[in-house]
Design a protein that fits this description.
mainly alpha; 67% helix; 213 residues; globular
């Protein structure tokens, strides 16, 4: 198996739960006008995998960040048809990440509590992978700036490719935690393949009970 093929398989594994979520969300919100955002998120997952396999890690970071933006945007605009039509027709009114997180906390009673439980047992290194990705996308510090002296430098080292795969896994967990926090009221309606990964993270029965309260 070539290195590129191996990376694609690793990327698929790292985004496995996101793909399950995509299938579920599209099924429960059939014909929603904002579902193109979910299609965009699916494309961003494929785009990130392809870029990493080609060694193009910096473009992959943009695709990873876009996954977060699009999932969150869908969570808002699926229930705000008029606002989405305005975005489509005028190109303004798109919601930022922090605005949507606040909206979810303000309007879904269990969201903040559940998300707090999951944040306490996170397996990812980065509490907010979006912040790290934004630093690289916007070149916010010297370590995040590109260093390209020849065309060959565009291709990242194997170690950086591996780090990008790890970041895909972190983004998947981060997005998944937001979705679990919103949709666990209908736990038994979720795809059964989404159950084990979450249950395995709970360290105590009271912790699990608090989440599902």
């Amino acid at each position: 198996m070539s290195r590129g093929d191996a990376v694609l398989l690793q990327a698929e594994s790292a985004s496995e739960h996101l793909l399950l979520w995509l299938g579920y969300l599209k099924e429960i919100e059939k014909d929603n006008a904002a579902n193109c955002l979910l299609e965009g998120a699916a494309s961003a997952i494929r785009e990130a995998a392809a870029c990493i396999a080609l060694g193009l890690v910096r473009p992959a970071l943009n695709s990873l960040r876009l996954q977060i933006d699009l999932f969150l945007a869908w969570l808002y605009f699926k229930d705000h048809k008029v606002e989405w039509e305005r975005v489509q027709s005028k190109g303004d009114g798109f919601k930022l990440k922090n605005e949507i997180i606040k909206y979810l906390g303000d309007n879904f009673d269990a969201f903040s509590r559940r998300y707090g439980v999951l944040e306490a047992i996170k397996q990812r290194r980065e509490k907010e992978p979006y912040r790290l990705l934004s630093a690289h996308v916007h070149g916010q510090s010297e370590p995040a700036l590109p260093k390209i002296e020849s065309p060959a430098d565009v291709v990242a080292s194997i170690s950086l490719q591996d780090e990008a795969i790890a970041l895909q896994k972190e983004c998947s967990e981060y997005i998944g935690d937001i979705l679990y926090s919103l949709y666990s009221n209908n736990w038994h309606a979720l795809p059964s393949n989404l159950h084990p990964a979450l249950i395995a993270r709970f360290k105590t029965k009271p912790q699990q009970a608090e989440f599902f309260e």
